[in-house]
Amino acid sequence: MAVKEINTAGRRKTAIATIALKPGKGRIFINGRSIKDYFGGRATLEMMIYQPLALTGNETKYDVIVKAIGGGICAQAGAIRHAISKALLEANEENKSVLRSQGLLTRDARIKERKKYGRKRARKRFQFSKR
Questions:
Q1: According to a count of CB atoms within 10 Å of the terminal CB, is the N or C end of the chain lower?
Q2: Domain residue ranges in the chain
Q3: Contact at 8 Å (CB) between 85 and 104?
């Protein structure tokens, strides 16, 4: 199936990644830089991003252009993986069972809990003194 360009967004914590999935040679560019340059050789984050492409057998079929904002690099990697998974689903419905079984289509909704009044952080209490 010929795909022109698919645009999707993925989220993780406070990071948001918008991607453009285009037919190509399997290159990934994040904020105008290569994946190796952006993540500084962190192989686990690179594997995390390539996971949906590898599971569906599309490593060399598509180029991915990413704009990632917010969060840290781990959260951005999770957001990119979520966006790529959604784009691959849009490209081919047959990918749904593979991606769903690995949990790649589900948005990880865990975010930082807000600070409560009278406390140092969300749950930390001040030291208790009996006397």
A1: C
A2: 6-101
A3: yes
Of 72, 66, 60, residue with least CA distance to 86: 66
- Cα separation of 48 and 12, whole Å? 13
Q: Is the dihedral of CA 26, 27, 28, 31 positive or negative?
A: negative
Q: pLDDT tens digits, residue range 12-59? A: 999 999 999 999 999 999 999 999 999 998 999 999 999 999 999 999
Tokens for 65, please give them.
Answer: 């252009």
CATH assignment of 6-101, given 3.30.230.10, 3.40.718.10, 3.40.50.150, 3.30.1330.40? Answer: 3.30.230.10
Given pLDDT bands bounded at 50, 70 and 90, which one contains residue 7?
very high
Q: Are 13 and 78 in contact (CB under 8 A)?
A: yes
